[in-house]
Amino acid sequence: MQKPKSNQASVGSVQCENTTLNLLKVNDFVAKAIRDRLPNILVINVCSSPGSGKTTLMQETGKRLRDRLNMSVLVGDPETERDAIRMRDVGINALQIVTGGMCHIEAQMIYQALDHIDLTGTDVLFIENVGNLVCPAAFDLGEDYRVTVLACTEGDDKPKKYPRMFLTSELLIVSKSDLLPYVPFSVEAVTKDARDVNPDIEVLSISSLKGDGLDAWCDWLTERVYAKREKAAEKVG
Amino acid sequence: MHEISLVRNIFRTLEDEFPHDIQRVRGIYLKAGLLSNVQPILMQNAFQAVLEDQPKYNKTTLHVEVLPILIQCDLCGQTSEVAQYRFVCSQCGRPSRNVIQGEELLISKVEFE
After folding, report:
1. Chain B contact for A15 (CB, 8 A cutoff)
2. Interchain contact B60–A (C-beta under 8 A)
3. Would residue A8 count as lying in a domain?
4. The pLDDT of residue A225
5. How far does A17 lie from chain B, in Å, by closest CA?
6. Comparing C-alpha atoms, which of B67, B68, B63 is closest to residue B80?
7. How many domains in chain A?
8. B32 CB near a chain A CB, below 8 Å?
9. Which of A28, A88, A131, A222 is deepest in the core (most CB within 10 A)?
10. Is the ipTM of this complex over 0.85?
11. Residue A100: band (very low, low, confident or very high) from pLDDT cuts 50, 70, 90
């Protein structure tokens, strides 16, 4: 980063032409610190609108992964502990981050939360972001992968309306797929629009309630947990 | 978006960079990529609201320039502007995620009295 010289005389003059003071540099700095702190744990940032089924997906993922992997969840909401309680109810190690009305989670909140959650033995840490397809897209939380959940009841026009979220995600989960026969939603159309924005994005259809697609999702996760472990081992070795 | 916290970030950033000259700042120039979701009008409103709270900065004006999204093709190297959020090369039609402009949120220039 090019630094302006603040000790220069500044009266009556224009200073710092072409300076670059990145307003998100604090966040990005802390995001890197999170990556350095969790070399062996796969970190997944789960984003979506409110009510897309993130917490239900987490619950069902926890039940399915139980025999294979240990998972923990940091869950952000503007208010209440409800989601963390729902996850603990099914035996998932979960900590609520109450953002106090804020529309997104910032890296600093995750870094602080790491002091309050026991991640011993955890293979995959999910960050369930605040329900919002706009603001969370701008904040790197030190994750390895960003996953956007879009319920088919929300409509298949979202990738073009909220491009940055889809641009910065590696995987799009179309949730509530058991409702596909009843709503005007085309997985093909949403895939096409999402790939206009991000040609590399993968798409999975999932019904957390009926179980469709959950095996593929768990395989996707397991593969990446092992890949991250191998990478960490290489670094140490 | 969260304009108030962005405006506070602007002042925090400037206080860090110019601890001695911060009171003499008169003009702040922002470059906001289209993907940063920053709306200039909302930024200006938030800026005015923060100035009410912090009268020491009330001689300062904010200028926001929104930058279009540019991608560079991995295949042919062509730089193209993204229209309607279709991230494809305007020359060869190949999809690209190689965003070279449009995600930034920068203070590009600061004027002092």
Report:
1. yes
2. no
3. no
4. 98
5. 5
6. B68
7. 1
8. no
9. A131
10. no
11. confident
Closest Cα of chain A to B41: distance in Å? 17
Instruction: Verify whether the Cβ–Cβ distance B109 to A12 is below 8 Å.
Output: no
Distance of CA B61 to the CA centre of its chain: 15
Of B18, B85, B105, the CB nearest to A23: B105
Determine the distance in angstroms separating the CA of A223 from the nearest CA of chain B, rounded to an integer: 24
| H or E element at residue A175 | strand A171-175
Chain B residue numbers with beta carbons less than 8 Å from the beta carbon of A12 are 112-113
In a domain, A155, yes or no: yes
A122 and chain B in contact, CB less than 8 A: no
pLDDT band at A2 (very low <50, low <70, confident <90, very high): very low
Q: Tens digits of per-residue pLDDT, B70-100? A: 999 999 999 999 998 899 999 999 999 899 9
Query: For chain A, what's the residue count?
Result: 237
Kindly indicate the confidence band of residue B1, based on its pLDDT and cuts at 50, 70 and 90: low
Does residue A17 sit within a domain?
Answer: no
B34: pLDDT strictly greater than 50: yes
Take residue A230 and report the two structure tokens written for it.
Answer: 């191998």
Q: What is the CATH number of the domain that holds A165?
A: 3.40.50.300
In a domain, A235, yes or no: no
> Reduced to 3 states, what is the DSSP secondary structure of residue A149?
strand
Q: How far apart are CA A5 and CA A51, in angstroms?
A: 48
Asked whether B22 and B59 are in contact (CB, 8 A), the reply is: no
Range of the domain at A97: 28-228
- For residue A54, what pLDDT band results from cuts at 50, 70 and 90? very high
Residue to substitute from B20, B112, B113, interface A, most A β-carbons within 10 A: B112
Which phi and psi angles does A78 have, rounded to 5°? -60, -35
Q: Set out the domains of chain B in order of their start, with CATH numbers.
A: 3-112 (3.30.2320.80)
